[in-house]
Amino acid sequence: MFEKSARFYDAIYSFKDYASASDELRTLIQERRPGADTLLDVGCGTGKHLQVLQAHYRAEGLDINEDLLAVARAACPEVPFYLGD
User: Fold this and answer.
1) Rounded to whole angstroms, how far apart are CA atoms 53 and 36?
2) Number of alpha carbons in the 13 Å side-chain half-sphere of residue 56
3) Where are the alpha helices (DSSP H) in 1-85?
4) If we measure between CA atoms, which residue out of 14, 84, 15 comes closest to residue 44?
């Protein structure tokens, strides 16, 4: 789906506040699963949430689009990413 636009995805969605959304997600995770230390981001796209969340969890990402994963791998080289549906 994003084969031609993957490298522009973050610029197109630059209005999104990934840091705040990630902080909210972390709060929800800790409320529901106190002490959680691992995270799988399903549908991780370009890894913008993982850029924040990797500081708090052993994080991994999964996405169906290899082009988006390439962007994510470049942004978060220490995070394992997987191609899958």
Assistant:
1) 12
2) 19
3) 9-12, 18-32, 48-53, 66-75
4) 84
